[in-house]
């Protein structure tokens, strides 16, 4: 930090402050974690200076022998850890991984004319018919993923997202009474819509998913099952999600981030069955810019950590702590979407019991040192900006060693803060969706306790 500070003191100070903030608040953002020192140090080194378009042993630049070593090691670790046929470890983020996966499936599955055989040497030689066929390869295909308000991710076909524009898109949701995925409804929708790609996985669904059943449903219409396990990759790596719940055993294509429950560096990966291997390896430069060798080195390190027996215990604790948190909230009167959790996520409905919007709850909690994010709940009356929910996740605090006692205390502090928060009125005298008031001294007192924890 002294070296950084000598050049850019503002940045050095912001880094110091970030560490201090992370140490003195409770990180309950479900997609965040604490990477190990070995992982962090693998990110900041000379690999960052190297260009290496292409893939292992097949580069568009000279001098990539050391990049080959770390990329191969990361891929091997991922394949071993998840039991995958083939791992592509270059994606810079989860969204990039999903784009590579969509491109891979489209390229592999949708036939295009053999333009070389037709003597086409440049785009200027393409006939109108060829253009039409090529357009069909991308713009005309169908995909189906989980809707955003049921807990899906933007890249699972949300209309304004590029995934919603690349495909004709339809989504499945959750049952309005139970909040759970209804596989019979999904099957009926898939039979009717006949997608090329069925996407499983979520960002805010607090339950496990039966991927064996999803594969059965996809197979009925010849769809490729793609699972985005970004959120729960750590629980798959830790062998908590096995059998029907193991996405790698059932989906042809699996994408993930490496920085959430997997506790690695920021980045993404795509795991595929053999038949997609050659296509996915062309992700760079067809979809992605040059790979970040420093990040691939850090992925290799974090994946090696996840192969240790202690990571299985970590995964069990993440889920066990989520149950403790959920029960702690419910016994104090809170309402949870689906009535509980069996993964790492707890989705708290702050409208029903506390009369707040997600925005108000998020702001009040952070004043008290509890870092969460507001989140839509199914059929949210407050829309996707203000929302009626708060999403809580246990991966980060579990990494800090929190167990049952600490998570019960966290549940108690959350309820205390939300019960002491009320809706303020706007200048027109109507209830505000953003402004709130909080009992005098409450935020400071809870903040002091979060620092102690
Ligand atoms: N997929 C899922 C399920 C996610 O929850 C997220 C991020 O929150 C992403 C993809 C995108 O990851 P990234 O932010 O690394 O692009």
Automatic annotation (TrEMBL):
Pathway: One-carbon metabolism; tetrahydrofolate interconversion; Amino-acid biosynthesis; glycine biosynthesis; glycine from L-serine: step 1/1. Its cofactor is pyridoxal 5'-phosphate. Residues 7-108, 141-414 form the Serine hydroxymethyltransferase-like domain. One of its GO terms (molecular function) is glycine hydroxymethyltransferase activity. It comes from the Bacteria. It catalyses: (6R)-5,10-methylene-5,6,7,8-tetrahydrofolate + glycine + H2O = (6S)-5,6,7,8-tetrahydrofolate + L-serine. It holds the Pfam family SHMT. Belongs to the SHMT family. This is Serine hydroxymethyltransferase. It comes from Propionibacterium freudenreichii subsp. shermanii (strain ATCC 9614 / DSM 4902 / CIP 103027 / NCIMB 8099 / CIRM-BIA1). The lineage of its organism: Bacteria, Bacillati, Actinomycetota, Actinomycetes, Propionibacteriales.
């Amino acid at each position: 930090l002294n070296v950084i500070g000598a050049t850019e003191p503002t940045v050095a100070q912001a880094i110091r402050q970030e560490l201090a903030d992370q140490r003195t608040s409770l990180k309950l953002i479900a997609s965040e974690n604490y990477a190990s020192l070995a992982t962090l140090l693998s990110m900041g080194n000379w690999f960052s200076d190297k260009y290496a378009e292409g893939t292992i042993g097949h580069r568009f630049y000279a001098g990539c022998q050391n990049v080959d070593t770390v990329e191969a090691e990361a891929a091997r670790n991922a394949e071993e850890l998840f039991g995958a046929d083939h791992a592509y470890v270059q994606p810079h983020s989860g969204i990039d991984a999903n784009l590579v996966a969509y491109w891979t499936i489209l390229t592999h599955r949708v036939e295009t004319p053999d333009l070389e055989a037709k003597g086409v040497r440049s785009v200027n030689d393409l006939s109108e018919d060829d253009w039409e066929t090529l357009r069909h390869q991308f713009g005309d295909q169908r995909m189906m993923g989980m809707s955003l308000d049921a807990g899906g991710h933007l890249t699972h076909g949300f209309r304004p997202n590029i995934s919603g524009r690349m495909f004709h898109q339809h989504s499945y949701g959750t049952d309005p009474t139970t909040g759970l995925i209804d596989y019979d409804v999904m099957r009926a929708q898939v039979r009717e819509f006949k997608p090329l790609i069925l996407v499983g996985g979520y960002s805010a669904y607090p339950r496990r998913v039966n991927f064996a059943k999803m594969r059965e449903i996809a197979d009925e219409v010849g769809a490729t099952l793609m699972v985005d396990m970004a959120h729960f990759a750590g629980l798959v790596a830790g062998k908590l999600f096995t059998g029907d719940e193991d996405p790698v055993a059932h989906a042809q294509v699996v994408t993930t981030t490496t920085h959430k429950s997997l506790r690695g560096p920021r980045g993404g990966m795509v795991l595929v069955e053999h038949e997609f291997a050659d296509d996915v390896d062309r992700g760079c430069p067809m979809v992605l810019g040059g790979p970040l060798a420093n990040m691939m080195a850090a992925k290799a390190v974090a994946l090696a950590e996840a192969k240790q027996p202690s990571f299985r215990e970590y995964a069990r604790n993440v889920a066990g702590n989520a149950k403790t948190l959920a029960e702690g909230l419910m016994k104090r009167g809170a309402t949870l979407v689906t009535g509980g959790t069996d993964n790492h996520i707890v989705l708290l409905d702050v409208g029903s019991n506390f009369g707040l919007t997600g925005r108000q709850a998020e702001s009040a909690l952070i004043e008290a040192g509890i870092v969460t994010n507001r989140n839509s709940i199914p059929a949210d009356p407050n829309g996707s900006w203000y929302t009626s929910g708060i999403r809580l996740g246990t991966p980060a605090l579990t990494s800090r060693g929190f167990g049952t006692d600490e998570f019960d205390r966290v549940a108690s502090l959350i309820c205390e803060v939300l019960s002491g928060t009320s809706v303020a009125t706007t200048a027109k005298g109507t209830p505000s969706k953003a402004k709130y008031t909080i009992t005098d001294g409450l935020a400071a007192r809870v903040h002091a306790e979060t620092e102690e924890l």
